[in-house]
Amino acid sequence: MFCAALPHNGRLTHWKSAMSHKPLSEQEYQRLSATLARFADHGCMNLERLDGFFAALLAGPEAIRPAECLPLILGDAFDDESAFPSEKALEQFVSLLRGHWQDIAEALKHGEFQPWLEADADGNPRGNDWAEGFAAGMELLNDDWGLLFDSPDDAPLLEPIMILGFERHPDPEMRPVVDALSEEARAELLAALSPSVHGIHDFFAAIRLKLEQDEQALEQEQPRRPH
């Protein structure tokens, strides 16, 4: 899956890091959701799918800045010159994306992450969009995610995400469950998403820490050159 640091029609060239984080307000989330919904016909992610996508990028093997993935987030709207009426409108949208990204990062840091799940027409969350977004994020570093799949102790963390993420797959053979999920089974899977994401975050954080420690030890073992 393609993901690269590309300018949006020459107007977006970088992702400015915030010195301090202020959580998005309810009104700001409404604006973000409405903007994403406006591009639904262009294959743009909705807010639930975006939340899962960002969760995978932040909890996974290596941080990928969301500005590098605007083509995946916006779909065909990324190449549409008329998608945003002005540079200011684009900057406001990017600011909302950055705010949501930072909200997730802070929640993971403090062990408080909860997935953003929208209710269906019957008022019940299904979680498919969220899990499909998470799976899309995994594809960006597919080989590195193999470390988790190959871990007997930690691979089960992916189970609720994979079940919901592939429940609607067009190929029936790719669906992890044959029969429709019961309300009880779906509720259990949805409840497992938060601890799964935290477990995945801890798994890869431990690997990164071990690599850093090994690199430091190797540097200390290397003989110093005489002056």
UniProtKB/TrEMBL annotation:
Entries under SUPFAM superfamilies matching the protein: YgfB-like
Pfam families (alphabetical): UPF0149
InterPro entries: YgfB-like, YgfB-like_sf
Superkingdom of origin organism: Bacteria
Name the UniProt record assigns to this protein: YecA family protein
Species: Chromobacterium violaceum (strain ATCC 12472 / DSM 30191 / JCM 1249 / CCUG 213 / NBRC 12614 / NCIMB 9131 / NCTC 9757 / MK)
